[in-house]
Amino acid sequence: MTDSKTKASPAPGLRGEAVRQRVIDAAERLLRQGKAEFSMRDLASEAGVSFATPFNQFGSKAAILHALSDRRIDRMEARFVAAAPTGDAIDRVLVAVEAAVSVMLEEPIVNRSVMGWLGTAGPAPGRVLGRSSALWALALADGDGLPADRRDEALRSLPGLLAFGFRGVLSFWTAGEVPDAELADRAHEIARGVLRGFTG
């Protein structure tokens, strides 16, 4: 009984963001073990927190999986920045595609589970579109290499269009219709197709 109670209480001083990260880490471990259908009770046990903690911190399982998606986009951004791409906006977008695909292929089982939950409504609207658009906006930067007469329009439209396109490819990958070996090629195809609308 004492052991169980100890496990259900976060470590002393563990508050706020630290508790949230602990819950997210536990969700990731469960997905890694192939337990995509984990319950909130399973999650609380894995995280070593009270049953109410995941609800108090996130409100729903969908919100926890959305937080895992945020973590993936953070990694994509970090990988893109670390690549320090040269070239123009088009070259940088293609480097961002590589960065994003490499993150998704690192843990396909976990990432397919995360993707599968992104269409599930949580207590608040998701942030995936905004976060994904920000990644593509980062790659586009000031739009150097795009036609000058369409650059402003491109910089307004392309981040969202690239986000929609990449999400579409990932949806088919999640469903098993695009194999791992083809994910990079398909993602490059959609990015080039979207860019072509502004470059001719």
Short description, anyone?
The protein has 200 residues and is mainly α. It has helices spanning 2-7, 16-32, 40-47, 52-58, 61-83, 89-106, 108-117, 128-140, 151-174, 180-199. Helix 5 (61-83) crosses helix 7.
Overview of the molecule:
It is a single chain. With 200 residues, the chain is mainly alpha-helical. It folds into 2 domains: 2-58, no CATH class; 62-199, Tetracycline Repressor, domain 2 (Orthogonal Bundle), CATH 1.10.357. Helices cover 73% and strands 0% of the residues. The chain contains 10 helices and no strands. The chain has helices at residues 2-7, 16-32, 40-47, 52-58, 61-83, 89-106, 108-117, 128-140, 151-174, 180-199. The longest helix is centred in the last third of the chain and has 24 residues, at 151-174. The protein is elongated, with a radius of gyration of 19 Å. It starts with a helix and ends with a helix. The relative contact order is 0.11. The model is unreliable at 1-13 (pLDDT under 50).
